[in-house]
């Protein structure tokens, strides 16, 4: 199941990269909120605490409609953590 999670992470990484390059503002982005929430829970379940923490932080920033700079930084940090995990 852990391997299945990692395979799904690779797909979600591609999705996160696409969102990161969109011009749409991140605060209030429902698809990103769902993705971050899903990653936070699943990563925690399978023992990937750093991914879980970064995804949770991103979700919180988006829900609270934090400034774009903070949200983009959190998104970039999540992307980098997933890349490290998959490497």
Please characterize this protein's 3D structure:
By secondary structure, the protein is mainly alpha-helical. The protein is built from four helices and no strands. The relative contact order is 0.19.
Q: What's the helix and strand layout?
A:
Blueprint: H1 2-20, H2 30-45, H3 49-63, H4 68-86
Helix pairs in contact: 1-2, 1-4, 2-3, 3-4
Which terms would index this structure?
single chain; 87 residues; mainly alpha
Count every helix, treating DSSP H or I runs of 4 or more residues as helices: 4
Question: What is the string of SSEs from the N terminus onward?
Answer: HHHH
Specify the structural class: mainly alpha
Per DSSP E runs of 2 or more residues, the count of β-strands stands at 0
Task: Report how far apart the termini are.
Answer: 18 Å
Question: How much helicity do the residues have?
Answer: over 70%
Task: Profile the largest sheet.
Answer: none
- Whole-number mean pLDDT: 88
| Contiguous uncertain segments of 5+ residues | none
Query: Beta-strand level of the residues, as a percent range?
Result: under 5%
Radius of gyration: 12 Å
What gross morphology would you assign? globular
């Amino acid at each position: 199941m852990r391997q299945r999670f990692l395979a799904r992470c690779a797909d979600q990484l591609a999705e996160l990269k696409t969102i990161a390059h969109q011009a749409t503002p991140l605060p209030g982005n429902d698809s990103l909120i769902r993705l971050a929430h899903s990653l936070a829970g699943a990563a925690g379940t399978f023992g990937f605490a750093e991914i879980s923490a970064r995804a949770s932080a991103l979700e919180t920033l988006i829900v609270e409609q934090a400034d774009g700079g903070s949200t983009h930084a959190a998104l970039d940090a999540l992307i980098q953590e997933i890349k490290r995990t998959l490497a």
